[in-house]
Design brief:
two-stranded antiparallel sheet, 2 helices, globular
C-alpha cells in the first residue's frame, strides 16, 4: 500500500517502502534548509492517520492527526522549559511551534520510521495532547 507524503499544496509523492520514505525525507531535508524548512506529512493509507515532521533544521517538531480529523491530536514534547518558537512552512504558510515541542531531528526521523512501520506513535518520544 502506498503512503502519501506531502510537503506543499501541489507537492506530494506516494511511497511504498521505508527505503523510499527515507530517501524522500533525506532529499527534502537537504533542499529545505533554514528559512526554507518545511513540515512534511506522512499519511497512512489504511487509517488516514498522519504524522508531520519538520525538516530542514537540526531540531524538528512532530504533529499527529487521526484520520478521522477528530481529537485527540498530539505534538512532540522536548524541553518543557525551552523558550521561543520554531517555524516551518506548511502548505504555503508559516506554522509556528513552541520550542518546548522541538526535539532532535534524528529522534523525529526515528519516530516517523516507527509510524510508517507500525501505524503507531513511538514511545521513544514524549507527546502532549493539543
Amino acid at each position: 500500500m502506498a503512503w502519501k507524503v506531502q510537503w506543499a499544496k501541489r507537492c506530494e509523492r506516494k511511497v511504498t517502502s521505508l527505503t523510499e520514505l527515507d530517501a524522500l525525507l533525506d532529499d527534502l531535508h537537504t533542499k529545505h534548509q533554514g528559512d526554507r524548512a518545511v513540515l512534511v506529512t506522512v499519511e497512512s493509507p489504511e487509517s488516514g492517520d498522519s504524522l508531520a515532521i519538520g525538516v530542514g533544521r537540526d531540531l524538528s517538531v512532530l504533529n499527529y492527526v487521526p484520520g478521522t480529523g477528530d481529537p485527540p491530536y498530539f505534538t512532540s514534547l522536548g524541553n518543557e522549559s525551552a523558550k521561543g518558537t520554531i517555524v516551518f512552512h506548511f502548505m504555503g504558510q508559516w506554522s509556528e511551534f513552541s520550542m518546548r515541542n522541538a526535539i532532535p531531528f534524528d529522534q523525529a526521523r526515528k519516530a516517523v520510521r516507527f509510524f510508517f512501520e507500525t501505524g503507531k506513535l513511538s514511545d521513544k518520544v514524549k507527546w502532549e495532547e493539543d
